[in-house]
C-alpha cells in the first residue's frame, strides 16, 4: 500500500464520489461488501486522510459479480498481480477490491459484522472498528510502519475495538505488538500483562 498523503480538497472529494459510486453499484447488484481502508476510518468519524485509492472487501465467490457490476457502471477493471486483489479505475481514482484481508479470506462473518454508516451522505456497510484496526495492524511492515496514522484511529475508536482479540492475533508480530505496547504506555488501552500471562 502507498503511504498516506494530504490530498487537495477536490481530490479528497473525488475519492468520496468514487466510493459512493462503487458502493451504489455493488448494492444495486446485490453483492455483499464492506468499505475498508482510510475511507472506512473517515466513515467512523476520523478526519479525511485518504490514500490514493478507495478499498472494498468482498468474498472471492462474489468477485465476478462485482467486476460485472462495476464494468456495467463504466468503471474500468483490471487484473492485479496480487491474487488477493482486483483493481479498478474511475477516472483518475483507483479502486481496490480486496478478497483477502489481514491475511485471511474475506468471509461472510466479516461482512455481517460491518456497520452501515453514512459516507458523505450515502449509507453503505463499513468494516467494524475491530476488523478495521486488525487490517491496519496486519499491513504494518518494514516498508510501511506509520504509527502516526494509526494512533488517532486507536484513540477515537478504542471503546469499540476488541483489544484482547487483536493482542492474541498480533502479539507475535513485532511491529503490531510494538504499536499495541505504545498504546499501553500512552494509556489508550489497558496493560496487556495479565492477558499475556493467561495465554502463556
Automatic annotation (TrEMBL):
Q: Which Gene3D superfamilies match?
A: 3.30.460.40
Superkingdom per UniProt: Bacteria
By its UniProt entry, which SUPFAM superfamilies does this protein fall under? Nucleotidyltransferase (SSF81301)
The protein depicted here goes by the name Nucleotidyltransferase family protein
Amino acid at each position: 500500500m502507498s503511504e498516506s498523503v494530504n490530498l487537495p480538497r477536490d481530490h479528497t472529494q473525488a475519492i468520496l464520489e468514487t466510493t459512493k459510486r462503487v458502493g451504489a453499484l455493488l448494492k444495486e447488484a446485490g453483492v455483499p461488501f464492506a468499505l475498508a481502508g482510510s475511507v472506512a476510518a473517515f466513515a467512523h468519524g476520523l478526519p479525511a486522510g485518504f490514500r490514493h485509492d478507495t478499498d472494498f472487501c468482498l468474498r472471492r465467490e462474489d468477485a465476478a459479480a462485482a467486476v460485472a457490476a462495476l464494468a456495467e457502471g463504466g468503471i474500468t477493471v483490471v487484473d492485479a498481480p496480487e491474487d488477493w486483489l482486483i483493481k479498478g479505475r474511475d477516472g483518475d481514482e483507483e479502486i481496490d477490491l480486496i478478497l483477502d484481508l489481514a491475511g485471511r479470506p474475506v468471509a461472510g462473518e466479516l461482512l455481517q459484522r460491518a456497520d452501515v454508516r453514512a459516507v458523505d451522505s450515502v449509507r453503505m456497510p463499513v468494516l467494524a472498528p475491530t476488523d478495521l484496526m486488525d487490517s491496519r495492524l496486519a499491513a504494518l511492515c518494514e516498508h510501511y510502519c506509520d504509527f502516526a496514522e494509526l494512533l488517532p484511529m486507536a484513540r477515537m475508536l478504542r471503546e469499540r475495538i476488541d483489544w484482547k482479540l487483536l493482542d492474541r492475533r498480533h502479539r507475535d508480530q513485532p511491529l503490531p505488538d510494538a504499536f499495541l505496547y505504545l498504546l499501553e504506555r500512552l494509556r489508550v488501552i489497558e496493560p496487556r500483562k495479565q492477558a499475556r500471562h493467561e495465554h502463556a
